[in-house]
Amino acid sequence: MTDPVHPMATSPAVPAPAVSEAAGHPVPVTDPAPVTASATEADTAPAADPTTAAEVISSGRALLGIELGSTRIKAVLIDPAGTVLASGAHAWENRLIDGIWTYGLDEVVSGVQAAYAALAEDVRERHATELTALAGLGVSAMMHGYLAFDADGELLVPFRTWRNTTTGSASAMLSEAFGRNIPLRWSVSHLLHAVLEGEEHVARIAHLNTLAGHVHELLSGRRVLGIGDASGMFPIDAATHEYDERLLDAFAGLDAVREVPWDLRELLPRPLVAGEAAGTLTADGAALLDPTGALRPGAVMAPPEGDAGTGMVATNSVRPRTGNVSAGTSAFAMVVLESDLPTAREEIDLVATPAGDAVAMIHTNNCTGDLDQWLGLLGEAAALTGAQVDRDELFRLLFTAALDAPADADGLLVYNYLSGEHQTGVATGRPMVVRPEGVGLVLAPFLRAQLNGAFAALAAGMRVLLRDEGVVCDEMFAHGGIFTTRGVAQQVLADALGVPVAVAESAGEGGAWGMAVLAGHAVARAQGDGAALADHLAQRIFADLELTTLAPDSEGQAGYARWLDRYLAALPVERLAGELIV
């Protein structure tokens, strides 16, 4: 899913990975590849003292976070205060096979190994030492989806990612039975879909997992899951921090599952809150992660989390009335709730923070992917002139030019749907640019429409949450490469949501860093430190973080609202395009 390092604690000398999830950080205009690079774990924050960093690494006190995002597997090494010591990444991409968006599990293992190898090489180059031991380790990945295994641990069907939208009937059945929205991408929706379709493998299912949980099991031998990620498999009871027993019974009572030879309780991994013991890196796990044999086992492992959970950690958005936006290939907004929502809304997912508190989530399948491609096209056009435009400068110019246009983009509409968009009821994606009769194609309004479109589905869902449901959010913290150019996408988002938006000095990538921070919290708890996650973040990680906050502009907010009204009204055109254009 979305994939956005923590901006506060990076080193300018750490090399940038070649590919990332989110638009906003430039690539050379002479590069024919798609423009998908974003700010990395190492862009702007002060570097750790080399001597101290080397000593932290060589003494085995460093913490590792790994995140498997939609287009990049990232590894970030930090010290206990959150300072990034090294990073590594590996590019990968999902494939559409027989109508299913998937990744091969062999690609999962090789990709994690490649990201770790790049990290280990970065350690050698930057700190003249070898990475042989870790204090803590955590794995995060895109949430939800469907990984079903038999009793021998063999995958029964190819991994079905969050991007698949074939589970509509199952999702609707579960939402009605449970009295709350159960999204298409949740594991239980995929499971019931397989049952309803009479798929042969259903009778042989021994356990289910998420991608993060699967990799964690390979490294630790433990089949457990962070509660945030678990809440995207099946609803969680906020009081008990376990799967909701009433809803488990409701699932078992469905006519469709009366004949299956298993109880859902037996299939799901055990949920754990942040800081709970989730095992240690085993000898087999160390050998899998580092086939060279240099890495020793024994690191404390944090409960594996989804990218939404690490996004909350990376933005210190784990207390009630705080929220965060993670913008990448997909996008989601998370608002920590003060109390339960009074009504069930299909636009709103109810999930949990890594500490188990209730969260309202607005999720969209599409965000920066189409924008990436348009920026790549403009970069190719610039390259044809022979111009050697600095990549940072090119993106700064393009993004800044958008602010020269009115907030309603002169009526231009952009539908950035590379895939279907459940948030707006669009089954299959057909990217479109639509302009009213008599309106010319001018660069600034075009770019403004692109930015408006990147956040449109998210803004539609947040309108329901904040306006219709009356949820209060004092401030949103945003991260993702689209925010790298200061004050542009950040202002557009503030105007779109009607909420102040805070961004740290560099907002490029947060998930792997957030997972490393969760590993540090797990180590502290294992050593007898009883601090809750919110206190650990506030006192030890974010105490000195500098943020830039932009409030909604009255004119910009009104202009975006007009634009969004037109966007929503014209959605039937986008739906029709999906039916007619094949």
Question: Which SSEs are present, and which pair or pack?
Answer:
Layout: H1 50-58, E1 63-68, E2 72-78, E3 84-91, E4 95-97, E5 100-102, H2 105-127, E6 136-141, E7 147-149, H3 168-178, H4 187-196, E8 207-209, H5 211-220, E9 224-226, H6 227-230, E10 236-237, E11 242-243, H7 245-252, H8 264-267, E12 270-272, H9 283-289, E13 300-301, E14 305-306, H10 307-314, E15 322-327, E16 331-336, E17 349-352, E18 358-364, H11 369-384, H12 391-402, E19 413-415, E20 432-434, H13 443-468, E21 475-479, H14 489-497, E22 501-504, H15 511-526, H16 533-541, E23 547-550, H17 554-569, H18 571-580
Parallel strand pairs: 1-6, 6-13, 6-14, 9-12, 15-21, 21-22
Antiparallel strand pairs: 1-2, 2-3, 4-5, 7-8, 10-11, 15-16, 16-18, 17-18, 19-20, 22-23
Helix pairs in contact: 3-4, 10-15, 12-13, 13-14, 13-17, 14-17
Structure report:
Residues 7-49 have a biased composition (Low complexity). GO terms for molecular function: ribulokinase activity. Keywords: Carbohydrate metabolism, Kinase, Transferase, Xylose metabolism. Belongs to the FGGY kinase family. Residues 63-285 form the Carbohydrate kinase FGGY N-terminal domain. The strands form seven sheets. Strands 17-18-16-15-21-22-23 form a seven-stranded mixed sheet, sandwiched between helices. Strands 1, 2, 3, 6, 13 and 14 form a six-stranded mixed sheet that branches. Strands 4-5 form a two-stranded antiparallel sheet. Helix 3 (168-178) crosses helix 4. The model is unreliable at 1-48 (pLDDT under 50). The chain has 18 helices and 23 strands. It is globular. The chain is of the alpha/beta class and 582 residues long. It has a domain at 144-209 and 234-267: Nucleotidyltransferase, domain 5. The two termini are 25 Å apart. 36% of the residues lie in helices and 16% in strands. The longest helix is centred in the last third of the chain and has 26 residues, at 443-468.
